[in-house]
Design brief:
- By secondary structure, this protein is α/β, with parallel strands linked by helices.
- The protein is built from five helices and eight strands, in the order αβαββαβαβββαβ.
Length: 160
């Protein structure tokens, strides 16, 4: 797939609008393949492939969690840190409505609705991360400090 044929997503527009230097990495999307597919195809450590998870608290307030591809989120610990009883993943329809992206192509950049972002604190320790570019089969590579600059996430330690 040539670079000029890639669609410009709201995430790409947001990154460009904030002056973020990034690279585009299209790959063959596999249903339920997750971050392991990109890691395998591009020969990068899955720890540097960041997943964007849309969740909601017990009152139905949405939030985004950025987590290493090889880790899971302790929703119990996240709920404790956020100060709510419970945090659960959103159903795909809700995640799509909130973000404007299809599950498997959700980016934390350029979402339809502004939501608080929580980022696993060790993500900033990686020199270069790969995160969804706003569609299935497209990740962008960038410096994790740009994620901090653009999204101003709350850093948390909830990875297990």
């Amino acid at each position: 797939m040539s670079r000029d044929k890639l669609p410009v997503t709201p995430a790409i527009r947001a990154l460009r609008g904030h002056g973020v230097a990034f690279t585009e990495h299209p790959y063959k999307y596999e249903d339920r393949g997750g971050t392991a597919v990109f890691s395998r195809e591009f020969h990068v450590d899955e720890h540097s492939v960041i997943k964007t998870l849309v969740m909601e608290d017990d009152a139905g307030h949405p939030l985004i969690v950025l987590m290493h591809g090889d880790k899971e989120v302790s929703t119990k610990e996240l709920a404790r840190l956020v100060g709510v009883k419970r945090v659960t993943p959103c159903v795909p329809e809700t995640a799509q409505k909130l973000t404007g992206y299809i599950v498997g192509g959700i980016s934390p950049f350029g979402t339809r609705r502004s939501m608080p972002v929580y980022m696993e604190e060790t993500i900033v320790d990686i020199p270069r991360i790969y995160i969804n570019g706003g569609r299935r089969g497209l990740l962008v590579g960038l410096d994790p400090h740009e994620v901090v600059r653009v999204l101003n996430p709350t850093r948390v330690k909830v990875g297990i």
